[in-house]
Design a protein that fits this description.
The chain is α/β, with parallel strands linked by helices. It has 14 helices and eleven strands. Strand 7 and strand 8 form a beta hairpin. The structure holds nicotinamide-adenine-dinucleotide and zinc ion.
C-alpha cells in the first residue's frame, strides 16, 4: 500500500511502515528511544510492536481515557522523560489511540523545546483522523483540545492489524470520521462506506480516508478555507461530547458517536441554509441512526450544549462558524447560524 506524503511528514502502511521506521532509526543517532503506551495498548499492541522492531527502547505508560488527556498526565510523562535522562536527541514513539498520540505529540513538542516523535495510531479513529495534520494537545477541564500546538511527527505508521483487538464500539466511532470524509469530499466514497457491514478488512478504505484528509490539509495547512470542512459535524458534536464528559450521570459518548449526532444536526441545518436536498438529509440521518445509538436530549441538555458552543476553537470575534453541506461531497464554510435554528435541529433529531 503506497505511502502518503503529508505536509512535512509521511504516513506509511503495514509492512512498509516498519521498514521505514528502521530506516529512520538507523539514519538518526538517537540517544534514547522511548515508547509511550497505555494499559490497553501495552497488553494488545506492544507484543506485536516488539516482534516487529529490532531496537532497544524504554517503556513509558499512562492511564487510558479522555479524562486523562490533561496537563497532569503531561507532567507525569515530562517527569518520566526527565528522570530517565531524555535529551534533545531522544525519540518518543506514541503507540496508542488519539488520546495518546495527541498527548504524546504535545509532550514531545514541548519537552526541551521539542524532541522528535513518531505516531503509531492503534484505533481506527486515530488512523484515519489523528494521523494527518499535526494537531497535538490536551483538554482543559471538559473543554476539548484547548491546549496544544501544531507540530508534525517524523512519520506516522498505520498498521491495521492493531484493530483486531479494538472493541466494536471503538471501530464504529472511527468509522464516523470516515463517513464524514465521504460527506465533505466524495459522494462515491460515502456510497462505498454505506455498504460496509463488517470491519474485518478496512485497509483500502483507511488508505482512502487518509488520502482525503491529507489532500484537504495539504491545500490549506493553516485552516483558512478548505481545511475547515473537516470540522463538519464537529461544532455541535464537540459541544455534545463535552456535555457528556462533564455530566457523570450520563453514559459515556465516544467522539465518533457525538459527531455522528453532530452530522445529523448539521445536515438538518444544511437543508435549511445551504440547499442540501431532502433526499440527502434522509439518507444521512438514516445512515447514522442505523449505525449509532440515538440519544435523548432534555431541554436542559440542549441549553448546556448550546452554551458550550462558544468555547469552540473555530469561533472568531464571537461568531460561531459552521461548515454545512450543499450536497453530499460539497461544502460551504463560515456559515453563521441564528440560535433559534439549533432548537429546530434538535427537534428534527428527536422526531427521527
Ligand atoms: N490530532 C487530531 O487531528 C485528532 C483527530 C481526531 C481525534 N483526535 C483526538 O483523538 C481522541 C480520541 O481518540 P480515540 O478514539 O483513538 O480514543 P482513545 O485514544 O481513547 O482510544 C480508545 C480506547 O481504546 C484503547 N485502545 C487503543 N488501541 C487499542 C487496540 N488496538 N486494541 C484495544 N484497545 C485499544 C485505548 O486504550 C482506549 O481505552 C480524542 O481526544 C480526539 O480529540 C485528534
Ligand atoms: Zn473528529
Amino acid at each position: 500500500m503506497e505511502s502518503i506524503v503529508t505536509e512535512s511528514s509521511a504516513v506509511h502502511f503495514n509492512e512498509q511502515a516498519f521498514t521505514e521506521l528502521h530506516n529512520h532509526i538507523s539514519l538518526n543517532s538517537y540517544s534514547k528511544i522511548f515508547v509511550l503506551v497505555d494499559e490497553n495498548t501495552e497488553t494488545h499492541c506492544l507484543p506485536h510492536f516488539k516482534d516487529k522492531v529490532n531496537f532497544e527502547f524504554i517503556l513509558l505508560k499512562i492511564t487510558s481515557g479522555e479524562i486523562h488527556k490533561n496537563i497532569e498526565t503531561c507532567m507525569q510523562v515530562w517527569n518520566d522523560l526527565s528522570n530517565l535522562n531524555a535529551d534533545r536527541k531522544s525519540l518518543l514513539i506514541n503507540l496508542g489511540g488519539g488520546v495518546l498520540t495527541d498527548l504524546g505529540g504535545f509532550v514531545a513538542s514541548t519537552f526541551k523545546r521539542g524532541i522528535n516523535f513518531i505516531n503509531i495510531p492503534t484505533t481506527l479513529l486515530a488512523m484515519v483522523d489523528a494521523s494527518v495534520g499535526g494537531k497535538t494537545g490536551v483538554d482543559l477541564g471538559v473543554l476539548k483540545n484547548q491546549i496544544g500546538v501544531i507540530n508534525q511527527p517524523q512519520m506516522v505508521l498505520v498498521v491495521p492489524i492493531f484493530l483486531k483487538t479494538l472493541e466494536e464500539r471503538q471501530l464504529h466511532s472511527g468509522f464516523a470520521e470516515m463517513l464524514k470524509h465521504g460527506l465533505i469530499e466524495s459522494d462515491a466514497y460515502w456510497q462505498k462506506l454505506k455498504l460496509v457491514t463488517d470491519f474485518d478488512n478496512l485497509d483500502t478504505l483507511i488508505h482512502d480516508s487518509v488520502l482525503i484528509k491529507n489532500e484537504v490539509v495539504l491545500e490549506d495547512p493553516t485552516e483558512q478555507n478548505r481545511r475547515k470542512t473537516l470540522n463538519y459535524g464537529h461544532t455541535l458534536g464537540h459541544a455534545i461530547e463535552s456535555h457528556f464528559l462533564e455530566d457523570d450521570s450520563k453514559d459515556t459518548l465516544l467522539h465518533g458517536e457525538a459527531i455522528a449526532i453532530g452530522m445529523i444536526l448539521e445536515a438538518y441545518l444544511s437543508k435549511v441554509l445551504t440547499g442540501l436536498s431532502q433526499t440527502s438529509l434522509n439518507d444521512i440521518s438514516r445512515t447514522f441512526l442505523s449505525r449509532y445509538k440515538k440519544v435523548n436530549f432534555s431541554e436542559t441538555d440542549i441549553e448546556v450544549i448550546l452554551s458550550l458552543l462558544k468555547f469552540d476553537k473555530k469561533n472568531s470575534h464571537g461568531n460561531i462558524n459552521f461548515v454545512l453541506l450543499k450536497s453530499i461531497g460539497e461544502t460551504e464554510i463560515d456559515v453563521k447560524i441564528e440560535s433559534n435554528l439549533f432548537s429546530e435541529a434538535f427537534s428534527y433529531y428527536k422526531h427521527l
